[in-house]
Amino acid sequence: MGLRESFQAGLARQLGHPSGLRGRLVGAMLNRRNRTAVVKAVEALEPSGTETALDIGFGGGLGLELLLRRAAAVHAVDISATMLDHARGTFATEISAGRLHLHEGSMTALPLDDHAVDAIVSTNTIYFVLDLGAAFAEVARVLTPSGRFVLGIGDPDLMGRSKMLTDNGFHIRPLDELKAALSLAGLQVTRQERFAHSGLGFHLLVTAPK
Does residue 67 surpass a pLDDT of 60? Predict the structure, then answer.
């Protein structure tokens, strides 16, 4: 493996599971690079001041900042101990006040009770999930019957052309495959948005329980 391939493989690993100092740097980069996507995803979610929200795979924490401005309480799930430690420092006041609850876990095994949250957002995370059915079933389980889930993903056609992604474990799936898996889990796509982001197209799938 050459230097370029080695660098790309290391970056891909950090994007999927940030760790250590490099992980903290990646988290800060994600906040900058993904700002437009995260802002639009939270806007599409429309959490209210009486609701409990959840961010799955919150990374650098920009989504948590935005959700805390709008929701009564926020849960945050991430597999990365580095990102969890960073969030504990960044949002110490909100954690002490009982408005933010951090959990180490994955999208396929959410550490929350049934019907615990009203609004769920997850951006740029599904590429790292092997079992779509299990992930979306968990989302449906923790969501209230009147809740909604916003999934944000980069354009699959454009991402699929990147050897850095396809050669390093990113699972790039067509939108129709994602919609079918959501439907099987009992989540109906009620709205779809597409916009330009970082030179690529980005999609938001806004869903609700059937």
Answer: yes
Which H helix or E strand runs over 153? strand 143-154
Question: Where residue 190 sits, what CATH number does that domain have?
Answer: 3.40.50.150
Say how far apart CA 167 and CA 150 lie, in whole Å: 27
Residue 169: what are its φ and ψ, rounded to 5°? 90, 5
Q: What is the pLDDT of residue 208?
A: 98
**DSSP assignment of 7-46:** HHHHHHHHHHS--HHHHHHHHHHHHHHTHHHHHHHHHHH-
Cβ within 8 Å of residue 92, ≥6 positions away: none
Whether the pLDDT of residue 22 is over 90: the answer is no
Residue-averaged pLDDT of the chain = 88
Question: How many domains would you assign to the chain?
Answer: 1
Write the CA distances from 75 to 95, 110, 195, 209, integer angstroms. 10, 11, 27, 20
Separation CA 107–CA 9 (nearest Å)? 23
Residue 171 and residue 129 in contact, taking contact as beta carbons nearer than 8 Å: yes
Q: What is the pLDDT of residues 135-180, one digit of tens each?
A: 999 999 999 999 999 999 988 887 656 666 656 667 889 999 999 9
Residue 115: domain span: 3-209
